[in-house]
Write a structure and sequence with these properties.
By secondary structure, the chain is α+β, with helices and mostly antiparallel strands. It has two domains: about 110 residues, Phosphorylase Kinase, domain 1 (2-Layer Sandwich); about 210 residues, Aminoglycoside 3'-phosphotransferase, Chain: A, domain 2. About 40% of the residues lie in helices and about 10% in strands. The chain is built from nine helices and nine strands. The strands form three sheets. The chain has a five-stranded antiparallel beta sheet, with helices on both faces. Strands 6-9 form a two-stranded antiparallel sheet. A two-stranded antiparallel ribbon has the order 7-8. A hairpin with a 5-residue loop joins strand 7 and strand 8. The longest helix has 25 residues.
Length: about 375
């Protein structure tokens, strides 16, 4: 695992952002001001997060049930964004739906602002959840963080609770109420999902070197398409433990990051949860450390999910490879952003920019699992 500097994620100035946010907040809560604004070290590579408190000397607003908040701001257009479009209204509506129709701990979304004039892009404000998040940098599979240092029993409890998040989401959200998450196009929900990823890849490589391994991955998907894609449900999209805030009892206190939510088979989320852990585990092992080889194992995730829902996961080799392929496209875009900012040179081999290239090659050859 490289210790290279973290790629730039924004060109915005936090102090200016805070000043403009205070001015906007005054239109919603007259007399209120923003205090203690910070950008978390784990600020994402896509939408941006600002943590802050609200100092409001007057009576509290009936729509506000917390003074500690988090702001989710659409990607900075000047920072070579990871995705071509940021639909903050869709994210806001998704969070409200999940909060209203499930028992999942989703932060209450307070306000949506679609006018980019205030902060330079649309945003929404939600309550801030207290707790701990498994780190991405350095990954939780490395020594020296709370999850790695936990007992096997504590990690097993966290794993079971995390799989339960997927089971409850898939079973509790009424599909008709989630139709706004449907991907445009023809065919099954899975077919439309994959076609949207093809379009995303075409956007990533427009004017840049193409990735042979990603293109072979799409060909593999076409050749190994599931005979029965399965039931369509609402999926979280970015279903990984790094998007969950956990309390001291290793239980989920908040489920975050809904920008990739979509309709599709249950296995979209299961494959993503399995593979995103493998992504970190493989990188850790490649650096000579043991990681957490018995944590979030594919067989155990499948067994837990089946026991909770009565649904036996199917075509999981397809869905774990699809997850690795989607991650490769995102990584390629992140690398091209580094090229854009002059942080890395333009490579001769685009596939060299994909950290898990060897994993993807092994999956395509049928020798990974």
């Amino acid at each position: 695992m490289t210790t290279a500097p973290r790629p730039r994620t924004t060109t915005r100035d936090p102090e200016t952002l805070t000043r403009h946010l205070t001015a906007w907040l005054g239109t919603r809560l007259p007399g209120a001001r923003v205090t203690g604004a910070t950008v978390p070290d784990s600020n994402g590579m896509s939408s941006e997060t600002l943590l802050f408190d609200i100092d409001h000397p007057g009576a509290p607003s009936p729509e506000l049930s917390a003074s500690s908040c988090a702001l989710r701001l659409a990607g900075d257009p000047a920072a070579y964004t990871i995705f071509p479009r940021y639909d903050m209204a869709r994210q806001y509506r998704t969070m409200r739906l999940v909060a209203d129709r499930t028992d999942l701990p989703v932060p209450r979304a307070f306000w949506l602002e679609e006018d980019p004039a205030h902060l330079g892009a649309p945003f929404f404000v939600m309550e801030r959840a207290a707790g701990r998040v498994p780190p991405d940098v350095m990954p939780y599979t490395y020594e020296g963080n709370w999850l790695y240092d936990a007992t096997d029993r504590e990690r097993e409890h966290l794993e079971a609770a995390s799989v339960s998040v997927l089971a409850r989401l898939h079973d509790q959200v009424p599909l008709p109420e989630a139709e706004f998450l449907s991907t445009p196009g023809k065919g099954s929900a899975l077919h439309r999902h994959v076609e949207a990823q093809r379009a995303y890849y075409a956007w990533v490589v427009d004017g840049r070197p193409h990735s042979p391994v990603i293109e072979r991955g799409f060909a593999w998907l076409a050749e190994h398409w599931p005979s029965d894609p399965g039931e369509t449900v609402m999926t979280w999209g970015d279903a990984r433990i790094g998007n969950i805030v956990y309390d001291d009892a290793f239980a989920p206190a908040a489920v975050l990051d809904w920008e990739m939510a979509a309709l599709g088979p249950r296995e979209l989320d299961l494959g993503w949860m399995v593979y995103l852990h493998r992504f970190f585990q493989d990188l850790t092992e490649s650096s000579g450390q043991p990681g957490l080889p018995d944590f979030l194992r594919r067989d155990r995730i499948e067994e837990r999910y089946s026991r909770l829902t009565g649904h036996t996961p199917r075509a999981m080799e397809f869905h774990t490879l699809y997850a690795a392929l989607r991650q490769a496209i995102v990584m390629l875009r992140v690398a091209y952003r580094q090229v854009y900012f002059g942080e890395v040179p333009v490579p001769d081999d685009a596939d060299a920019l994909i950290l898990h290239r060897d994993t993807l090659e092994a999956m395509l050859a049928g020798r990974y699992w």
